What does this fold into?
Amino acid sequence: MSELSIPFATLPRTTVPAAGLEVTPLADADRKPLSKKEVSADHPTWCPGCGDFSVLALYFKLIEKRKMWHEKITTVAGIGCSSRFPYFVQAHGAHFIHGRALPFASGISLSRPDLHVFVFGGDGDAFSIGGNHFTHTARKNVKMTYVVMDNFVYGLTKKQTSPTSPIGFKSKTDIWGSTDRPINPLKQAISAGATFVARTTHTNPNHVLKMMEAAMDHDGFSFIECLSECVEFFPGAFDSSNPRKGGQFLEVPAEHDVADEYAAYRLADEPFPGRFGIFFQTQRPTKNANEAKLIADHRAKVGGLADWQILQKSFDRTK
Amino acid sequence: MSEVAAGPAPAGGQSKLTKINEAVIRIAGNSQDGIQAIGGFLARLAGRSEQEVMTFMTIPSTISGGPSIFQVRIGSGEVLSPGDEADMLLAFYQHSYEDHINSLKLGGIVLYDSDHITPKPEWLENYRHVGVAISSKTVEAIGGTGRDKGKNIFALGLLARIFDLNVPKLNKLIEERFGGKDPTVVQNAVTCFEAGYNHQLQDLLKTYQLQHAELKGHTQVVMNGNEALAYGLLAAGVRFGAGYPITPWSDIMELLRRELPKYGGSFIQCEDEIASISMAIGASYGGRVAVTGSSGPGISLKTEALGWASMAEMPLVIVDVQRGGPSTGMPTNIEQSDLNIACFGGHGDSPRVVIAPSSVEDCFYTAIEAVNIARKYSTPVLILTDQGIATRIEAFIEPDLKKICQDLTPDLTPIADHKPYDLKAPDGITRHVAPGTRIASGKYPVVTGLEHDELGHPTGSPKLHTAMTAKRRNKLRRLGADLPVPTTYGPNEGQVLLVGWGSTQGPLREAVDRFRSVGDAVSSLHIKYINPLPNGLDEIFKGFRHVFVVELNDEGLYGYGQLTSLLRARYAEPKIRGIHKCDGQVWKVKEILERVRAAMTPSRPS
It folds into this structure.
């Protein structure tokens, strides 16, 4: 038999409270709601006037309003301006690689049902390099909230065409104007099987908060496209949706049936500035619930056996 | 097949019983004939009889059909390789017969299906030919349907007769294998087996009996390397995995998908290789080491995320079941050409651990060790196996599962304060607290791929980048110092040291035995920990005039294969040379002997 050079007994556990630093947990009832000060961390590195500030402020507001505790929130992002998000939030967070925030977040969500996972990112991260993951996370209906801060341009790399840039947009990589048909995030989400699809804009804070709350309460993959202006590389992109700039903020019509996938798809096809609100919402078992059921069924079958005894049964069949 | 004594009274009145130490049987047919099932039965039987066994198989990379072989070597003593030459060839078709006659030793037995094979007159003299109408006799035995499904079990009956195998044990194995299906299936299998066993073999002069193994007093389990590795991960306490199908890694993900729910865990099939490593890292961040894996091309796709795990110092186990490369290469053949990508694949300086198990049993223990190294050193760990070890079946002493199995439930006890990337950590190693852990200071860490400060917040500081890079490197140096120094097989000084890694340990040791049996001072050294290397190898090299690294990969532009280059770079030792091949086949012991002797000819500088 091989000798284990590093036997288990000598190992620390995955998480190690330093000696003497253990603290007694407070009962949640005794804790006060977190203030903005307590949930904010690094000062954001965004340009002055960036739409992302508004999304961050409303995330803080959501945490405060819904009395969430630091340790129950996990904030995940990929790469991009907006993906810097986790550094600005005083909570457990992860800044992963470009385009792969969703599978990373799925790993947390599926293995830790006690946490609420929020993912923030931009349009390049979501629909270009991460396009495949967007489709499959929606299809699997992994429980999490995904807010895409859509600015129609690559900002961190300084003005290249993004998958949502409108035709004719002049960037450093399309100096004569972009010619590729832009992705429609809402249609993409609906057809991929997302169970909550909403749209909002950074210039309407109350609406952003309302959408975030509804998304958070949704049991499944909840997706919000939040228009978030890049004042540096695409200023004025969303003026036509902003009443203060002479535009129109049109909500999803009251008579729209959010359970009607085709109606949602048609609504999502309206030309810019389009509509704001919940386009589509349905209940379908989440990946989390499906896996939990699979586990419950199997656990019932193995009865009260310890893990080693389950493995022993497998080994007995190889003798 | 080494005969140990003249046979006693002839069995069955016509053929003589000869006692033998070991037997190598090659079964050749097409992939849908169930020849792997025969091999599997023989291996399981050997395991139950406390004999040693090793198998070797080739499968076509086509979707259905195509020639396939299964070779099994059963022995009463130590079995180190599947055997260079077969004592018996069981051939189902003309092509099986013609393609594999060369693998048979002179005077060996060809047991062939005379319904499909016409023996070649020129081979009749060198090999003993025993023809049985296997297909038609099978149809006759089962009756009616006119199909020869079951001919593998008929042939197993023939082998049971020739090698005087334990029939009650085999019958029990057949019942276990086909039990649970339609009762007629078991009945047909038993009928086929008995028909084969009772068939009168007119042309056979002798039957054989394997010597009883020296009883070890331990129960043996019989499985292939992929199974052993997957079970090892379960024993280690891994409860989450993610992957994407690719041969030959898929077996591991299929087994984990099937088994994990029983343990309260999940294995997720992802949309691609990148998603699967990302999801596994996410789950590791969730507090419990997770696993992902793949084979060659899939590993390439995972390297960016692997770099993140190295940078963020996240525990993770990545299995690479190597196959012939590059690109789609030879997906069902053996090769050891992913060592470089395992150790160095990726951008930037991204240290990680690489371990290569040497046997099926070692796959089980290596999986546990990989998990524990990942946890202890907060690092990604790659397990390098290969197509050969993944599919070969071996018997090994049953592990004490009660003692070995680990519980890795994350600890979410609140803590006062926490800096994951603490530069003053007493052991120099990063520790993460899982999300869900309350930190009383109110300062929460971020895990990140950006260069960071001690809390994980981004920094562009030259001083911090230098310090953090050193931190990530030094913890693995520490691991290197903690690793056991391998010992040589054979004396620790002599003329030649053969260095190997991974699945080639057995053939190399058998080569050493053969060299020593003719008086050559040859020893071997097997390196399991590839990155970091254990300390002290240079001391071992000092004891030998020549050091040959024997590996299944190309000699490369400069004449040195992948481990050879690594050892030369590490020790700047000119006497380290390489013996390489990349024909997609395992090393034959004979090949190793020839290649070493050729390399030792005086015309070569030494």
